[in-house]
Amino acid sequence: MATAGLLFALTNSPLALVFAAVGPVVGLAAIVDGRRGARRQLRRDRAERAEALRRLTDEIDARHAGEREHAWQRVGELGVVLEEPAGARWSGAGANELVLGRGAIPSGQRIEGEASDADDRALLARAWTLSDAPIRADAAAGIGFVGPPVLARAAARAALVRWSAAVRPGSSGLRVPETKEWRWAARLPQRGAEPTVTVVEGEQVTDSRGVIAIATARELLPPGLGTVVQLHSPRRARAEVLASPEQHREFVPELLGLRQAITAAARLAEAAARSGLEARPLPSRVDLAALAQPPAAGRASLVAAVGTAPGGTLELDLVRQGPHALVGGTTGSGKSEFLLAWLAALAISYSPSTLAMLLVDFKGGAAFQPIAGLPHVVGVVTDLDESEALRAVESLRAEIRRRERRLRECGVRDFIELDRAVELPRLLIVVDEYQALLERFDELGRVFADLAARGRSLGMHLILSTQRPNGSVREQITANCRLRVCLRVLHPSDSRALVGVDDAADLPPSLPGRAIVDDGTGPPRPFQSAIADPLHLELLRAGRSSDGQAIRPWLDPLPRRIALAEVGPSPDGIEFGLLDAPDQQRRLSAVWSPESDGALLVCGTPGSGRSSTLDTIASSFAARHGMGRVVRLPANRSAAWDVLMELARPDASDDLGSAPRLLLVDGADVRFRAWPDEYRLAASEALSTILEDGNGLHVVASATRPIGLSAELRDRFRSLLLLRQSSRGELAQLGGDPSLWRADDGPGSGQWRGLRLQVALADPPPSSAPPTANAPRVQAAPAPALVFHPGVSYALVTRNVPVALARLSEIGGVRVSVLTAAGSIGDPLTAAAETESAEVIVGDLDAWAAAWRVWTELKHTGVAIVDGGLAEFRALLRGRELPPLLDPGAAQGWLIAPDGGVERFSWPERRFRRIHPSNPEHATETIASDAGS
């Protein structure tokens, strides 16, 4: 309109005013048309929503129908239960949920989203409620029926018949009033057993668990009932769950007439009689001696009577019902006693030649102690001995391989097909506290899984016992353990995981040995396990004492002491001990082959038996080649030096013969540590030369740790024998197997080539022995005593001139002179005749350095004596060659001949007088003493 007015002002044309009139008309028309379109769209949206709600309602109804059908199939409608074969629904004592009638219960269906109107809220309520569904109550918590006696009894009869049709006779008991109204219930097969459900009418009870009560008024019911059913009419009742007010609901009750109840009880009683499930109470104790054991049937069975069930004696057969068994039960349930009775029953029927038992007890080893002495028992593995458990891993694997080879050799595929003449017993492995075993040794769990899969055809069976079956036993094992026994457990899930029903969680703690068994012949059933009293076991052991021991799948651990004579001779080398080879089910000789193995280094902590090992190797070598071929590096310093220098000579093999020789070096890492630096290095070089060149000489050395040797020496040893180490980590660092480490290893225990070792004991070889033919000895002679020859001049270099003069004064036939500090020779100190005396000139290093000309002349014409140290020797002779090593603290020195030869000497023994301190001239005596004292 504004635009039209502007055009009219500019053009003065009436046509512009027409545009001004058209604008409002067009706007009004658009509004009217928009409103009409919105109404049409709303009608379409409402129709679509109604259709969607209808489809959603149909889907909810369809799902509810399936949910309702599944719920009724699970419990069965009362008419179906009465018409189907009696006993078809028998399971166990855990069937405590009873159907009271039909009504609305919460549904499992849910709709996502929020309600926007009343229709939405109605639809949500419809989805969340399942109509015409079973209304159930927990019989174990107690149920009370309140109303007119006719209605209340009819509802109670329906619930009781349902319970009797669901609970297997013998697993639970029933008690009803001794009145004519309940006389029909006397035929129910649960009567006579220990009651778990009690029907009361007009009487009070202190314990409402398992009670079905009938009363005309609510205040007449026993207190503490879990559910109260108020019956208003045959079509209307109200159930109130006292612990959960939100579960109060109206429903149509199930009612059962007296004639229908009588018929149902008769049918159930006949079915129980046909099945041998008459409700006879189980005894609270069964003695194993009172059970008649079935006869053994060769290799075709492994059967034993282990207790009493509702149908009579319970017999378990590991071959037909197994091949393996799982046993569960909490502490105090009688699990260990049941295992003990089962094994004793097997030992009664089967001889050790047909059945061997390996017992694994991870509760300290006491559980199987009463039968450990039976000849059937080939071993008892406990958690107290970790090494034995690890040996069991390898030994069982070896046993599997051995049995596979035996069956292959006999041309059969199954243990049952073996000829009777083949001596191969069944092996029964029993584990008490299997869960504890897995926590400590997971490797054993893998072995048992392999056994579970292959044991049946190999004649190997498992009985695994645990407190918590649910989750502690792997599926690979449970799939092959068809025989299940569950004593009392704390959680229904444990019972359900083992035997498929919750019954074992309801077993009373006052009845140890009461259990549920699933042997595959029918539904799980209760039984009372037998108990083997000590007297019966003692008689069993005595009766089997004359039987031979069963074939063992492994040997005992190596003894801590082995004589060398017990080690068989080996053509391949020098035997020195025994090796434990559980993966081969035997012991092997520990053999060192010098030619192929090279030099041997024995390492171990102090007290581990290093020296004894060297003695054993020396004795074994001497028995083969003669004691004269054994060279032991002496403990004496000078003697050890002489032996090393002799053996390191390039031509040493020419003098010592071509036959094999053995050098023993005990404590190679500390032997040269206290030597002077130059001698220590020279000794290491000499030993390295011996190791490298050999010259027909084999070397065995010992050390605490290889790191104590130089790198050059370590590389020369090609074989390492590991004795006890201080820790598992140190053993691993040395290249050993840490699983073989034992903190309590005794002397001689260790490992060799990956196997556990026990070194044999042998008498150490003598330090010296006469040589055998063509086998000269290598030994160091003691340093000869210093002897002065008449007419010979001697130059004596010493650090302590007075001590040297005192020593010379005790030697006859010498004329002694002393060098002055200026290097001149003083007057003789003795008056011996020149023709009968040796001339000895004594001086320290400084004096002889000043008298250089005298030293040079005497060195070439006489004999030089160095009574000092290596510094004096080097200063006067001006050479780098090392003289023979002297012993510390000994009165020794060097003699240097005119031709340059150097020999070690010892001063003659000195004589001293002991003088009384209070009277020097009284009570004197002459004693001998070392020359260096």
UniProtKB/TrEMBL annotation:
Key word S-adenosyl-L-methionine present: no
Transmembrane region(s): none
PROSITE patterns: FTSK (PS50901)
Annotated positions binding ATP: G329, T330, T331, G332, S333, G334, K335, S336
UniProt-listed SUPFAM superfamilies: P-loop containing nucleoside triphosphate hydrolases (SSF52540)
Keywords carried by this UniProt record: ATP-binding, Nucleotide-binding
Keyword flag Lipid biosynthesis: no
InterPro entries: AAA+_ATPase, FtsK/SpoIIIE/SftA, FtsK_dom, P-loop_NTPase
Gene3D superfamilies to which the protein is assigned, alphabetical: P-loop containing nucleotide triphosphate hydrolases
Source superkingdom: Bacteria
Pfam families to which the protein is assigned, alphabetical: FtsK_SpoIIIE
SMART domains (UniProt xref): AAA (SM00382)
Ranges for domain FtsK: 311-496
Single GO term (MF): DNA binding
Protein name, entry field: FtsK domain-containing protein
